[in-house]
Amino acid sequence: MSGFQEHHHPQHCFQYTALGDSIGFGVGATNNYGYVNYFRDFLDKLYHCVNLTNRANPGFTSSDLLNHLQHDINTRKAVKNADIITISIGGADLLNCLHTSNIPACLSNADSTFAQNWPQIMNEIRKSIRSHAEIYVMTVYNPFKGDDPNYTTIEFFIQKNNSVINKNRSIYHYKVVNVHKDFQGKFTNGQWRVCTWTHFCQSPPDPHPTDRGHLKIARLHELEFLKNHRYKLRHLDD
């Protein structure tokens, strides 16, 4: 199967459902107007009628999302009706460990849990709910600066989480938006990207994206979308 086809009717508003955690909800952005809203605005230029249902919840871990998909009627309906779905999940699984007494053990357990939950999440969407939507999943980014002593420790576990996301893409037919890669390193002026695109370099540190960070995540989704819908480029010039 090469991919999922658009299945909306000409008189039918394009249905966009967002799933996941606080990033999907818009935390960190002004008035919670986050990457999901920006991506919706982009889709609206292409389809002119887009109905967004945002079922993301602040603090959600992969276990929470799995439970939500299994038992929340409104979420299941939103997934079933969707033409396109975006998912942001996995960050809270790991970052919650920073507040524990044994961080390495917590991170290891969190990775194992995510590795078990992720295929079940996708199985719930594709096989239980029987969604044929086009799905875009963002990778987890590392909010620490590259020279922070904690960077390497958490990076190891973030890479493991992202590996689980990447290796299942062909099984469940979804696209991966590599946010992790773009948030790494410095700009040409020497500024760490995470200090511009997240609130983590502020006091107190907050790993959520800034307005500019949410916009960057949205742009990465747009680029991935256009790779698969090249014919839509002409609509952006209208």
TrEMBL record:
GO molecular function: phosphatidylcholine lysophospholipase activity
Domain SGNH hydrolase-type esterase: 18-214
UniProt KW Amino-acid biosynthesis keyword: no
UniProt keyword Hydrolase present: yes
Pfam families in the record: Lipase_GDSL_2
Record keywords, A-Z: Hydrolase, Lipoprotein
PANTHER family: SGNH HYDROLASE-TYPE ESTERASE DOMAIN-CONTAINING PROTEIN, THIOESTERASE 1/PROTEASE 1/LYSOPHOSPHOLIPASE L1
Protein name (record): Exported lipase/acylhydrolase (Lipoprotein)
Organism the protein comes from: Neobacillus massiliamazoniensis
